[in-house]
Amino acid sequence: MSQTVRWCTVRRLGSAAIGLSLGLVLTAGVLAAPAGISFQPVAAQQGAELALPDGFSYRILVSQGDQLRDGNLFGRMPDFTGYLPLDGSRLGQLWVSHETRPAGGSVLTVGRTADGAWQVVGSEAFDFSQVGGAWNLCAGSVTPWETILVAEEYPPAKAEEIPSGLLADPARYGWIVEVDLERGSARKLYGMGRFSHESAIVLPDRKTVFLADDYRGGIFAKFVADRPGDLTEGQLFAADLQGRRWIPVPRDRAILEKVREWAVQNGATPLDRPEDIAYDPADGQVYLAITGDNAKEGQDAYGQVLRVDPETLDSEPFVLGGPQTGLFNPDNLEFDPHGNLWVFEDKYGDFINAQYGNNHIWVADAEGALHRFASIPNGAEGTGPAFTPDGKTLFFSVQHPSTPWRSSVVAVQGF
């Protein structure tokens, strides 16, 4: 089996290029602000509050244990949020995935009041029983046709991981699930394979989907649907980043249930926990968060964001984690309407300390210069960033914070 790739020595990126990348983030203080947004970066903090730059504010929309309008309670571990406009950037549906075992989803209808603040005007839990339940829902995306892709993380969902007393078939879990809020329906997309799905993002062509496998030695994958707009059937590929080739995965159910094992044995590149994916329509590149592996040393522990050409599979670090930059263990990614890449940390405990602070939210401009936008309350990570179409509001979840916080979904304004 191949060694897990150490991307600090990525193919065709020599030491001079790595130094240039580091130089960009080291001199971030003298570079221009990110496009379309101006703020004074916050300092690394260890406090219990959500710290934002001057001029920005947040509002908690819902917290763990709050009663929804349908009588259910808002669940634990909110993760992905996806905004679906009902009236542009003033009224919409906000999907929230819950990273629990079994997992759930919440649907919030959110609107802006006369003074511009956001409030919840409707809320309900989503019923996954129609697909036999869901498992550990992590990141996701909104498709071009306004359904939602959610990712079942942490297969192989071994029998010993299923709580005692639950009658469940582990092979039911570990898939991408497509949710249609208009119809109230869901379906599991078996053609995309079964592995530790962290995220899935559909390209504008309505048929190409990029997938990440959150696992030590996980893979980067691509699915191409047979018909645009219909993701039920298609061809799955695994990425060989060293050889710069896409490896077709046989359309065989037995292989699709064990994609990672088959892919690595057949030349796919194992990575140090590939997590969220973002696509930049301006340059056609795909950005992949490599969270890192704290069992290793140096760059492998800190993580980085890779920029990948989806056609040629040329790849290079876009931003590097580590003490030189202040960024550690990038997890969630999202582009804003101005072309800035937002990077949410999920630090290993080794890196949460007085020097490096809590988990943070960073903004990377087009050159890869990093600007620290927010400090998340201690004990928590920020997850599931989603912007309104006008870029004036950022929604995200505050997951597993220490008291006095509860896991919550917030709306940040001031842009």
Automatic annotation (TrEMBL):
Gene3D superfamilies: TolB, C-terminal domain. InterPro entries: 6-blade_b-propeller_TolB-like, PhoX. SUPFAM superfamilies: NHL repeat. Pfam families: PhoX. Coiled coil: none annotated. This is DUF839 domain-containing protein. It comes from Limnochorda pilosa.
